[in-house]
Amino acid sequence: MKLTYPKAPSNGVQTLRPALQAALQTQGFGVNRQFASAAPAGISLSEAYRGYSLSLDDLSQGKGLKNARVGDWHYLVFSGGVSIADAQLAEVRGHVEFASLNHGNLASATVDALKLAEQSPQLKGKTVELRMLFVSALHLVAIWLHAAGEDVLIPIEPTPKELALTGLYSEAALFAQLKPAADQAKRRFDADTTGLLGS
Q1: Which of 35, 87, 162, 175 is the least buried, fewest Cβ under 10 Å from its Cβ?
Q2: In which band, very low, low, confident or very high, does the pLDDT at 199 lie, cut at 50, 70 and 90?
Q3: Domain enclosing residue 172, as ranges
């Protein structure tokens, strides 16, 4: 399997560096140990890839990946060859700005999913573009390996286990599995008169 990446913002890495340096210096509450002990000089970044999102309405209406909305740029942050964080840049009025730094399980789960994909006979010899898919209302995060005529999705943490286990899914198989939960969540949202759900 060969990974390809979209054309990244030319100043993406320069935009991220100061934010990473600042985060490494503060090493605040909740930062994972690997991140907290990382030396700024030993930090490296992956190629940039895009996040995409689908809403409950999209899933309920049977819309698929071609309807996914383009989101932030993602970079995996490595220290000593180990993934320690997921850094995000948002496009704002034609410029990229630092958006967030996730030092939870997102980065390591992404790397684990890519290892799983590497070992899959289904993807042997194929070229795929790395993407990430979010369905926030269901807490679903999936690695999306996009190729002409084929999309493979791998749900990762924090996706609830009862929704989907980590493994390789076709678009049709995963969305068929998600639809009952999406329909149920949409009914709850639609019936909510307090306006508090989803906030």
Answers
A1: 162
A2: very low
A3: 2-191
